[in-house]
Amino acid sequence: MPEKVQIRAIKGVRDILPPESGRWIRVEDAARKVFGTYGFGEIRLPEFERARLFERTVGNDTDIVTKELFTWIDSPKANRALKHIRAEAGKDAGKEIDPRLHIEEGLLREFEDGAFDSLHEQTRVCLRPEATASVVRAYIEHGMHTLPGDVKLYYMGPMFRRERPQKGRYRQFYQIGAEVLGQSDAPGIDAELIEMLFAFFGRVGLEGLSLDLNSIGCKDCRGKYVEVLRAELVKVKEKLGADSQRRIETNPLRVLDSKAPDEQAIIETLPRISDHLCEACKTHFAEVRRQLDLRGITYNLNWRLVRGLDYYMRTTFEIIAPGLGSQNAVCGGGRYDGLVELLGGLPTKGIGFAIGEDRLMLSLEAAGKLAVEPAVDAFIVWMGAATQATAIKIAQRLRGAGIKVELPPEEFKFKKALGLADKLGARYAILIGENEIAAGKFTLKRLADAVQTSVTEVELIEALKAN
Ligand code: HAM
Questions:
Q1: Is 314:217 a contact under the CB 8 Å cutoff?
Q2: How far, in Å, is the centroid of ligand 1 from the Cα of 464?
Q3: Pocket of ligand 1 (CB under 6 A)
Q4: How far apart are CA 87 and CA 26, in angstroms?
Q5: Can you tell me the mean pLDDT for 306-317?
Q6: Which residues form the domain of 54?
Q7: d(CA 138, ligand 1 centre) in Å
Q8: Same domain, 209 and 283
Q9: Backbone region of residue 283 per phi and psi (left: phi > 0; alpha: psi in -120 to 50; beta: other values)
Q10: Is there a domain that residue 452 lies in?
C-alpha cells in the first residue's frame, strides 16, 4: 500500500470557496459595471511573461524583482545547458558530479560566444507580479496607439510575489486594476481615474477610506531631488538601519518608505520632493488637486508616498482601508509617462491603479459588509416515486427563471429533506406529494416561519422571483 500523504496548498496561497467566492464575483461584477460606465474595456492578459519585462519596468533594484519573482527557464535546451555548466563548474571545483547532471557533452560548444546568455535571457519567464507592464507590452504589441482617444483598459486576476505571508499579504493574490494610455497627461485624467475608484468602492459599500496623494516629479526634477536627498542621508547614515543604509546608494527614495520606528524622526527632517518639483510638475500637481476638489474628493498630501515600483513619475496615490492591520493599502497607483517608450513604443502618457482584491474583501468583512446570499432559494421535497417527474420538470423551470433550486437525487424521508433544506439555508421548501399531483398545485413552505400556501406553477415562479 502506498503511504498516505496529505498534500496541502503551498504557504501563501489560498483556496477561495463558496459562498466566499460568490462575494468575490459580486465585487468583480461591480468593478466591470462601474469601469464600463467610464469607458473602460476588459483586457485579459497572460499570467506569465518574460522576466525581463518586469526587470526593465518595475525595476531591477526593487524588492518585487530582486526577491519576489517566481522565475524559471522555459527551454529544455537551455535548462540542459545550464545543468551542464553547473556540472562542469563542480568538476573544476573537484566536486563529485551527479551523473544525472552531467549530460550532453558538447552542448556548451553550441552556446559559445554568449549565445547561451541570450537563449537564457529569452527563455527566462516568470509569473507576473503585477499587470501594468503587461498592459503596456500589449498596448505596443497590438498597435493600440492608433485607436481613437485614450485607451482605457481594466483587468482582474492573480498576481504572484514571493513575499513573507501574513494577514493581507499572500504569494498569490488578486488585483483589479485599470490603466489609461494615450497622448494626454491632462490632470483631469488622474482625477477622473481616482473618482472612478471611489465610485467602485461606493458601489461595493467600502467606507472610511483615505486617499494619500503625492507627486514624485519627472525624470529631471526627481533626479535632482534624489541627489539632494542622498546628500542629506549620507549625513545621517550612522543613525539608519542596514536596509536604509544600503538604499542610500541603490535607491534613496525608498528610504522614505521605511517603517522602522527609530528612523521615523530622522526621515521627518529630510528634504521634501514638493520643495524640489520643477515648474511643469508643480503646475501639474496643483491642477490634479484642483480637479479632485471639483469632484469633491478629499485627500491627504503624503510627501513620503514614493511607491515600490520604478516606473512612476508625477502623480502617485494609495488608498488606505480600515480593518486591515499593517497591510492596509487597498489600492496603489500613479502616473507612468515614458513607460511605453521604455518598452520600445512611441512617446505615450499613462496612469493607472491596482486594487488588492484580497484586502478589499478583508476590509469589507471587517466592516460587516459581506451580505450572505442564500445558496438555495427553494428545496424541493418530493414524496413517492410518481412525483419525481413533476419535481424534475418544476426544478428545470425554476432554474430557467434564475431561481436557485436544490433537488434531491433520490427520495428522502420528509423530515430528513426538510432538515437538509434548513441546514442549507433554503428560504423555501416546495412540497410535492400525491395530493399536490392530484390537485395540480404545489405546497410552498416558507422555512423562516413555516407558513404554507397552495400555489399553481405560475404563482410558484412569481412568489420565488419576488423574494
Ligand atoms: P502595488 O502597490 O504593488 O501596485 O499593488 C497594488 C495593490 O495590490 C496593493 O495596494 C495591495 O492592495 C495589493 N497587493 C500587493 N501585494 C500584495 C500581496 N502580496 N498580497 C495581497 N495584496 C497585495 C501595482 O501592482 C501597480 N501595478 C499598480 C498600478 C497600476 N500602477 C499603475 N497602474
A1: yes
A2: 42
A3: 130, 132, 161, 163, 168-170, 173, 175, 177, 179, 308-309, 329-334, 352-354, 356, 358-359
A4: 53
A5: 94
A6: 20-67+129-218+278-366
A7: 20
A8: yes
A9: alpha
A10: yes
Q: Whose CA is nearest to atom 23 of ligand 1?
A: 356
Whether 320 and 397 map to the same domain: the answer is no
* Atom number in ligand 1 closest to CA 168: 21
Q: Which candidate, 393, 379, 378, 384, places its Cα nearest to that of 433?
A: 384
CATH of the domain at 297: 3.30.930.10
Domain membership flag for residue 227? no
Question: Among 330, 359, 364, which residue has the most ligand 1 atoms within 8 Å of its CB, making it the best to mutate?
Answer: 359
Angle, CA 58 vertex, CA 53 and CA 64 arms, to 5°: 105
Average pLDDT over residues 31-60: 96
Whole-number Å distance, alpha carbon 443 to ligand 1 midpoint, is: 52
Q: What is the Å distance from ligand 1's center to 29 Cα?
A: 20
Residue 245 resides in a domain: no
Pocket test for ligand 1, best of 173, 176, 348 (most atoms within 8 A of CB): 173
Ligand 1 atom at minimal distance to the Cα of residue 131: 27
Residues 38 and 148 in one domain: yes
CA distance 403 to 444: 14
Residue 371 — pLDDT band, cuts 50, 70, 90? confident
Distance 58 CA to ligand 1 centre (A): 12
Instruction: Please tell me whether residues 445 and 409 are part of one structural domain.
Output: yes
Sequence letter at residue 389: A
Q: Which of 66-70, 94-98, 178-182, 433-437 has the lowest mean pLDDT?
A: 94-98
Q: Please state, in angstroms and rounded to a whole number, the distance separating the CA atoms of residues 369 and 273.
A: 38
pTM of the model: 0.91
Cβ(369)–Cβ(190) under 8 Å? no
Q: Looking at residues 346-369, what average pLDDT do you find? A: 96
Q: pLDDT by residue (tens digit) across 169-206? A: 999 999 999 999 999 999 999 999 999 999 999 999 99
